[in-house]
Amino acid sequence: MTNHVRLLASASALAVVALGATPALAAGTASGTTITNNVSVDFKVGGISQTTSTASNTFKVDRKIIFTVAEDGSSTTSVTPGSTAQVTTFVVTNTSNATLDFSLAAAQLSSGASGAHSNTDSYDVTNLAVYADVNGNGSYDPGTDTRTFVDELAADSSVRVFIVGDTPLATANGSVAAVRLTAVGRESGSAGTLGAAITEDTGANQQNAVDTVFADTGRDNSESALDDYTVSAATLSVTKTSAVISDPVNNTTNPKMIPGAVVEYCITVANASGAATATNVTVTDSLPANTTYVNSSIYVDGDASCANGSLGGSQSGGVVTAPLSDIAGGATRSARFRVTVN
Amino acid sequence: MKLILGLAAFLTPAAALAAPEVSISSTAFVEHIVKDAAGTLKTVLEPPKMVTPGDHVVFVLTYRNGGSQPATGFVINNPLPASVSFESSEGAQPIVSVDGGRSWGALASLKVAQADGTLRPATPADVTHLRWTFAAIAPGQAGKLSFRGVVK
After folding, report:
1. Shortest alpha-carbon distance between residue B27 and chain A (Å)
2. Radius of gyration over alpha carbons of chain A, in Å?
3. Distance from the CA of A38 to the CA of which of A196, A244, A271, B113 falls in 20 to 30 A?
4. How many domains does chain A have?
5. Could you tell me the pTM of the whole model?
6. Whether residues A138 and A256 fall in one domain
7. Is the dihedral of CA A106, A110, A111, A114 positive or negative?
8. Residue A5 and residue B50: Cβ atoms within 8 Å?
């Protein structure tokens, strides 16, 4: 015989449970839940229905601590030398069947250690700090995200955590600072306060009391992940050359450096291939002794051969100032000007 | 006052007479995987002292007819505990309900309505109640039933 179950609009709560069992959350039944089994027997003796006989037994669901720490996203944080409070972001996910606090620790890897993106650590950030994403907006807000631990993270919930650090000014392009975030589960219950350390129950367990078991990777109530900073810096090299253009005797044929000769100075600024674009580049050069500036002779944004470019810059008090346009990695710009030998 | 005392005196012996002829008990066990001396993994049943979500639990029901007469129309009803999802039963197979106890049948024959109104076969996870029926249990006869579930 086939029984067809039709669930009516007025289905009871139990019937709704039957409607394709609600998918269980990863954390599962809350720690401390009492599971009670009730069984009853109906029977007749001599054809007469007897009092139903019943029995029950209970046990408590224990606390299973399991959680993960992972890098948020999959790329390094690109930083400029001299930048402060740059952020690497992590996600702490609590799949325990209980709310927990988590203590947080940020650590730097040593030079030569593997970073998080097939790279190698080569510098340390300064002013290393760690903060939880208090306002839950996914980005680091310095005045608001000031709490240094994870507070009251519910079962099947996650929160972002930020490691911040400064990159020293002279750090070379491509340098990597790898950092590790470690989270350790703590008791919860008091919002705003980091709870006590948790000890696993290794002694005799109790059927109707709540014990704790560590079920995280390594079963040690501690999880960590790596992320890193990669420096994106301009790497400029500057060269200065000079050439005699003309002299009063030879004019432009093999001119010599004699009084009255016109000398052209050229300063090239090259940015290494793969480096970050250099902006706000200004060449400043003092006129050599015994020379006189040739008015309006400054050309800016010339090429590596000191040709082309356009009139620009200025001279004042014996100092030439020549601003250059942005220099991309692999590109070279030059500035040139002329003086006469006194 | 005197009448009430009299009634109380009458009721007490009646309670003693109501001792059930049929007894039933329910015991739970949790399955744990342990390594034996040879290092082989084995599944053992232990008292449910350490149970966490995802663990498999086994409930063992023991019944006995301790009376001097046969017990007929013997029906054992066991609603699934909240937080336990039914998986299987060993030995005598129960009929089940997936609609909170309103209708019953073999699990393979039951269907559940989906959100779009179509029916799909019921699965063990849909089970809400278990029931075993015996025509008669002789005096002195006892038996064990069991079912296995997973802690949600």
Report:
1. 6
2. 36
3. B113
4. 2
5. 0.79
6. no
7. negative
8. no
Last residue within a domain, chosen from A176, A202, A231? A231
- Digit-coded pLDDT (tens) for A201-252: 777 778 888 899 999 999 999 999 999 999 999 999 999 999 999 999 999 9
Interchain pair B72, A44: CB under 8 A? yes
- Same domain, yes or no: A165 and A307: no
Residues A183 and A329 both lie in one domain: no
Residue range of the domain that includes A214: 64-231
Sequential DSSP letters for A69-92: EEESSSSPEEE-TT--SEEEEEEE
Q: Each residue of B15-40: pLDDT tens digit?
A: 444 445 799 999 999 999 988 888 89
Domains along chain B with CATH numbers: 18-151 (2.60.40)
For residues B128 and B125, give the distance between their C-alpha atoms in angstroms, rounded to a whole number.
8
| Whether the predicted pLDDT of B73 surpasses 50 | yes
**Chain A partners within 8 Å of B89 (Cβ):** none
Residues A260 and A157 in one domain: no
A159 with A288, same domain: the answer is no
Does residue A18 have a pLDDT over 50?
no
Last residue of a domain, one of A200, A231, A262: A231
Looking at residue A145, the DSSP 8-state letter turns out to be: -
Local confidence band at A26 (pLDDT 50, 70, 90 cut-offs):
confident
pLDDT at B106 (0 to 100) = 95
Instruction: Let me know if residue A214 belongs to a domain.
Output: yes
The answer to whether residues A71 and A206 belong to one domain is yes
**Is residue A101 in a domain?**
yes
Dig out the tokens for A240 from the structure.
Answer: 């200065």
Q: Are residues A134 and A265 in the same domain?
A: no
Surface of A (26-55) touching B: CB under 8 A: 27-29, 33, 35-47, 49-51, 53-55
Asked if A168 is an interface residue toward chain B (Cβ–Cβ < 8 A), one would say no
Q: Do B47 and A38 touch (CB under 8 A)?
A: no
Instruction: Provide, rounded to the nearest whole percent, the portion of chain A with pLDDT above 90.
Output: 88
Are A33 and B98 in contact (CB < 8 Å)? no
* CA-based end-to-end distance of chain B: 54
Yes or no, beta carbons of B73 and A211 under 8 Å apart: no
